[in-house]
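Q: For a teaching session next week I want to show students how multiple molecules come together into a single three-dimensional assembly. I've collected the sequence lines for a complex. Could you give me the predicted structure tokens for the whole thing so I can convert them for display?
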Amino acid sequence: MGSCGRQPAARLEMASEPEARLRKGAIFLEYKNLLVELDLPIAVVRLSRPKALNALNSELMGEVSQALAELEKNPEVGAVVLTGDERAFAAGADIKEMASAGAVEMLLRNQFVAWESVRSFPKPIIAAVSGYALGGGCELAMMCDMIIASETAQFGQPEINLGIIPGAGGTQRLTHAVGKVRAMEMILTGRPIKATEALEYGLVNRVVPVELYLEEAKRLAREIAGKAPVAVRLAKESVMRAYDGSLQQGLDFERKNFYLLFASEDKAEGMSAFIDKRKPAWKGK
Ligand code: DAK
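A: Of course. Below is the structure for the complete assembly, covering every listed component.
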């Protein structure tokens, strides 16, 4: 793969060039924290930081952004599946990377640029979720156009337990997806829901046995990739319009509050407690 045509934002961490391999007729591109399989007319982007339950650090998100830029340019790719592994889609943004950051540092890191690449990806993108989809992991899945869940999937916004709130659209997209009262309970308690509840709430398209979740997502991606590409693109854009206007205002509001919490003592305590594997002692400051 060549370097991406777009100019990366100043603070976006760019991955080194991926290594390409040919296996069973499909092309695999290996990034440091990501594996991209080109199985035309679809591509599978697999998050791969298994020891950290695919926690989404800046490097990994930079790689996601780089891979999506390449897939966007490739006219042979009609749809994309974004997945993790059986144990975790992603257990959230990397707490260890955020633990010592203050509000201004978070603002200057400008990590939203990388996350935005998922939200604004013009081709259909389907999340294939097994295991944990928590915090930023749940938000990443919700940025995708559809979600296929394995029976073991669990979705949650546990940020409240760290003294912060969801920062990548969780307060908005979850509320749109499951309704106010359910979103309130999930966000204010931090308790995750199981795949079957996620289906009942309308958060996921379907739940399938764990051996099948990836295959089912790929099947759906292939079906869509067989349709007229321009119609698919405009259909996606049009559906997004159904709620994008008010969503943008909500996202701006959430982002300000998210940064504000990085100035609180409770955020420092919540994240240190997670790393030290102990219960946080909140001060309300
Ligand atoms: N960050 C960093 N490391 C994590 C992690 C995370 N989110 N989740 C798990 N790990 C690491 C653990 O620290 C552990 O590492 P070692 O201790 O082995 O070095 C390893 O993964 C395995 O985890 P556990 O030992 O904890 O495994 P368990 O099976 O016992 O528990 C668990 C699994 C998922 C219940 C637990 O790991 C857990 O509660 N994880 C944290 C979940 C969480 O709170 N997620 C929300 C994080 S805050 C933003 C965009 C997005 C966000 C923020 C900003 N911008 C664009 C600015 C999002 C924020 C979040 O997601």
